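Appendix C reproduces, verbatim, an entry submitted by the partner laboratory led by Prof. M.T., so that reviewers can inspect both the input and the predicted structure.
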Amino acid sequence: METRIRPPAVAGAFYPADPGELAAAVERYLAAGRATLARAEVGSSPPTALIAPHAGYVYSGAIAGTAYALVQARRPAIERVILLGPAHRVALHGLAASTADGFATPLGTVPIDRATRDAALECAGVQPFDRAHDAEHCLEVQLPFLQRILGRFSLVPLVVGTAAGEQVAAVVERLWTGDGTLVVVSSDLSHYHDYATARRLDRATCDAIADLAPERLGEESACGRIPIAGLLSVARRRNLHARLLDLRNSGDTAGPRDTVVGYASFAFA
């Protein structure tokens, strides 16, 4: 049977297409993340799950770097990554799995964990739907960080459309097995408000996440509010704690302040 690889869709747009430039950029963002963690004194407990943003690296790469910098200590143990993010490109009911054998970036190809993907397809609302993955950026931009931090690992990518948080939670519970699994939810926060409004909205969203309170997330909270809600429900049942690592917006990183997008990174342990 022919191997089918999902090629990168946003290399050269959201992040550098040249492998050397991309590796160097990711290392800079990881270094910036480590510096942020040191200043904030948030501790270094290795996480079992993350929330990380998915904008172009110039906007959100440093915030994502704070999340992935914490994963370094778990590198030898992590075998697979369950990666969830919201559908931006196609209308979708439920969750979309990929039938590809691997996802490629300029840094190489990450193999799909076929057995765990098949387990996901047994869950209610999960369907094979490659078109949801073909042009989707929210999962792809996480991969170079994971490749630089973890080296070898397998992937279960899931694009989340219209669904209930508990539906996502049931899938996460089914797939989150053992110490070898890292769960990553890809999400930005508020979109296209002025700087002061975004800061207010994003702080409320971060408070809800820290309190493991998915019922307090609204449509303006985050583009990935549904997968976040699913993660929060599972975290509450597993007695995990959520730590805010970094909270900024595009007005703080690389854009004007009249209309901004919010970004945060969280670690769960």
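The domain at 16-40+47-260 is CATH 3.40.830.10 (Protocatechuate 4,5-dioxygenase; Chain B). Additional entries are available on request from the coordinating office.
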